[in-house]
Amino acid sequence: MADTLRFDGQVAIVTGAGGGLGRAYALLLASRGAKVVVNDLGGKVDGSGADARAADKVVEEIKAAGGEATPNYDSVENGDKIVKTAMDTWGRVDIVINNAGILRDRSFLKMTDQDWDLVYKVHLLGTYRVSKAAWPIMRQQKYGRIVNVSSASGLYGNEGQGNYAAMKMGIAGLSATLAKEGVRYDVKVNTIAPIAGSRMTASVMPPDLVEALKPEYVAPVVAFLAHASVPESGGIFELGAGWVSRLRWQRSRGGFFQLASFSPEAVRDKFEEISDFDGHPTSYPTSNNDAFGEIMSNLEGQEAPP
Ligand code: NAD
Questions:
Q1: Whether the model pTM is above 0.95
Q2: Which residue range or ranges hold the Ketoreductase domain (predicted)?
Q3: Is the pLDDT of residue 14 over 70?
């Protein structure tokens, strides 16, 4: 088909591609012509251990289907080595899918520094390190697509996942900023919050749901976000089982106060108005400056209190 989305001549890095969602992304991109660095440390869900077979297996699958792939076994903490594998093998990097992940769920009371640090290292630091190494290459060639992986747990919060949620929200913040910094260089950065059955979700989902929510029902979105034709940068998409939605911030109109009588009691008395999303027009901010109009309008005509 003439309008089939292809990746011929492009090089993609998919982190954590030895299983689960990452494997599905790598297989789909490779089936459409991308040369893929299949990165995976091959550890357990909690981040312990390492095994080169995870990445090797997916590389073999891709090759068996007629595609091109090479393995990389480094932790995403060593993002520069992963990017080096792409550069040494094929001399370019067009696509980065920051997918590698672990879980160390604990209530905040029981969470150890190690639980926090390991989840930080794989998710937020790993996303930073791989992106940081690929960024100058993408900027230089004036082209790049990065898909970062957040989670509903991060965007909304989830009991027992304080470490994971913090990093996944951090990833969303990094993505929003990189999207702005990449605009002039055709480097587009989008974020997904997927749901799929995998070994990661096997501990919280019944087996039939793990089986039903296939990673393949998420992968087409990642491929589109990684494609040259994607119109968007800075988006957050929540998806699973073939359902795809987009998220944005909504801001209430807000409460406007007389500065001379601005007090905790005044805030209490207007708290409903501050939090009202239905009775007044709301807005959908996309930058720091979006609040400036309201801020300045409240100042206008008001004397600074003594
Ligand atoms: P998974 O455990 O099947 O896959 C994660 C992969 O990352 C594994 O193959 C693992 O070996 C690899 N990995 C772990 N640490 C690594 C490191 N330091 N360096 C390189 N590779 C490493 O889990 P999954 O469900 O496929 O998750 C993929 C991503 O999607 C994760 O970022 C996860 O947080 C996110 N996510 C998944 C779901 C879901 O429903 N499955 C929901 C929200 C977010």
A1: yes
A2: 10-198
A3: yes
